[in-house]
Amino acid sequence: MGKGDKKSKRGKIINGTYGTRRKRKIKKRPTVEEKISPGKKK
């Protein structure tokens, strides 16, 4: 269990991959109401 281990969090960080041990951070998507809101016009 270390840097070469594909199942550990450290191994995922070294390999640059994601999985169960290392989750991706979820980006917040704007809702439909926020996109269409009449208050924001340029």
UniProtKB/TrEMBL annotation:
Record field: compositional bias (Basic and acidic residues): 30-42
- Domain of life where this protein originates: Bacteria
GO CC, sorted alphabetically, is: ribonucleoprotein complex; ribosome
Q: Where is the composition biased (Basic residues)?
A: 1-12, 20-29
- Identify the InterPro entries for this entry: Ribosomal_bTHX/bTHXc/bTHXm
Q: Say yes or no: keyword Ribosomal protein present.
A: yes
Keyword terms: Ribonucleoprotein, Ribosomal protein
For region Disordered, the annotated ranges are: 1-42
Q: Is Ribonucleoprotein one of the keywords?
A: yes
In which family does this protein belong, per the annotation? Belongs to the bacterial ribosomal protein bTHX family.
**Name of the protein in question:** 30S ribosomal protein S31
